[in-house]
TrEMBL record:
Keywords: Hydrolase, Metalloprotease, Protease, Signal, Zinc. InterPro entries: Peptidase_M14. CDD domains: M14-like (cd06242). This is M14 family metallocarboxypeptidase.
Length: 432
């Protein structure tokens, strides 16, 4: 049976996920709403006939920000076309556990953004005990539109045509720089990245695909938490709502379900999903299907749009259940991973993935003590190092970047000449 396709803007079940052991009742519900009347998105006002516009988003968020102390909205950057990049914080009080949503890095993939907006509103106005308890223990951060210029133009890239999701190492775009600063300053335990995809008949056409960090520099415990988020929470939540799920980038045999081809989803460090793991967060990419599923959806674009948003909302329920039920395990994993770099032990991987072992040439088995940058090199990338949270020691007009730091696994990816996307070629210090 297909799930219903009508949105209920005043009443929404946000957590449809359950533990791996049992598919039981929802964790969080948002029944009664506070006064004044909660605002509605442009998407909701038109019942999915069109996506929420940027001016509507600004009015919507301003109304929520004004109505409750539970929510604050701050500008974290400005795009080339002078649109605001905004961070929404939702929570009852400061907490250790922090979840970050990145909504629609690709401007032509809007369902995640509208799911984020209605989620902000529903959590902001919720009065039930369970939701308030959740928000007293978890801070939710939301970059409500990660690519405002692309969303306005309905393009994948930003106004310069740059794919923001390939800029999380070099940080050349205002959008990626803003996200890097949030990750550095807030140190989220989970980073959840909402996208959409085009289906391939028979082999690749689930309602939702997801994928954890495959980059081999991801701490083992953090990698395990990201896979748990996917396999024990997000997918069961979507399945419980009637949606099919799978692993992003993997074609499967329609009869046996066996993987037959990998077309995407590698360990490339430029992608936010992988940067999340390298920066010690349980990252997850989520992709909803753009293409119509039924004859009715083919005839009614709004019906298809509503299904796209509702599938994203079902998966978000799994994220919230995970954040609530596994907060202790997640905090332990991310906390330990952030300290591990100070031990300065183990190899660094310049290639490979969790399902594709690195070649010998892609492994730095005995990393240097650090990298020296001359004055010109340091001048070129000092802002990017700062945005990444990389610690340096000034040496005259240049700098020394030690490996013994929380960002240890990131340092060679930025500075070693063997790394595919390095920013400059630092001089390795092997006198340890």
């Amino acid at each position: 049976m297909r799930p219903r396709t009508g949105l209920t803007p005043r009443v929404r079940t946000l957590a449809l996920a359950c533990t791996a052991a049992a598919l039981a009742a929802p964790l969080l519900t948002v029944p009664a709403q506070a006064t004044p009347t909660p605002p509605r998105t442009g998407f909701e006002e038109t019942n999915g006939a069109r996506w929420t516009s940027q001016p509507e988003e600004q009015k919507f968020l301003a109304a929520i920000d004004k109505s409750t102390d539970r929510v604050s909205v701050a500008r974290i950057g400005t795009t080339k076309q002078d649109r605001p990049l905004q961070l929404v914080r939702i929570g009852e009080r400061p907490t250790k556990n922090t979840v970050l949503l990145i909504c629609s890095q690709h401007g032509d993939e809007p369902s995640g953004r509208d799911a984020c907006l209605s989620t902000i509103r529903d959590l902001a106005y919720a009065k039930d005990k369970e939701t308030r308890k959740f928000l007293s223990r978890t801070t939710l951060l939301v970059v409500s539109t990660a690519n405002p210029d692309g969303r306005a133009a309905d393009t994948r890239g930003n106004s310069d045509g740059v794919d923001i999701n390939r800029d999380h190492i070099s940080l050349q775009t205002a959008e990626a720089r803003a996200m890097a600063a949030v990750i550095r300053d807030r140190q989220p335990d989970s980073i959840y990245d909402l996208h959409e995809y085009g289906a391939t008949p028979k082999y690749y056409e689930k309602d939702l695909f997801d994928l954890w960090p495959r980059n081999l520099n991801t701490d083992e415990a953090v990698h395990g938490e990201a896979k748990t988020l996917s396999e024990a929470y997000v997918r069961p939540a979507a399945n419980k709502s009637g949606y099919t799920t799978g692993t992003y980038g993997i074609w499967t045999d329609p009869v046996t379900g066996d993987p037959i081809k990998q077309t995407a989803g590698d360990g490339q460090e430029r992608i936010l999903r992988n940067v999340s793991g390298i920066k010690h967060a349980a990252g997850l990419l989520i992709e909803s299907r753009v293409d119509p599923l039924t004859d009715a959806e083919k005839k009614d674009e709004a019906l298809n749009n509503r299904r796209r948003v509702e599938s994203q909302l079902s998966a978000l329920g799994g994220l919230f259940a995970y954040a609530d039920e596994r907060r202790g395990q997640l905090e332990a994993a991310t906390g330990a991973a952030r300290l591990e770099g100070f031990r300065d032990r183990g190899p660094i991987y310049l290639g490979g993935a969790d399902n594709d072992p690195a070649e010998p040439s892609e492994v730095i088995q005995d990393p240097p003590c650090g990298y020296r940058l001359d004055a010109a090199q340091y001048g070129d990338i000092k802002d990017e190092l700062a945005l990444h949270g990389v610690k340096i020691k000034k040496e005259g007009k240049g700098a020394y970047v030690p490996m013994r730091q929380s960002a240890r696994s990131l340092v060679p990816l930025l500075l070693d000449e063997r790394a595919p996307y390095h920013l400059v070629t630092g001089s390795p210090d092997t006198d340890c």
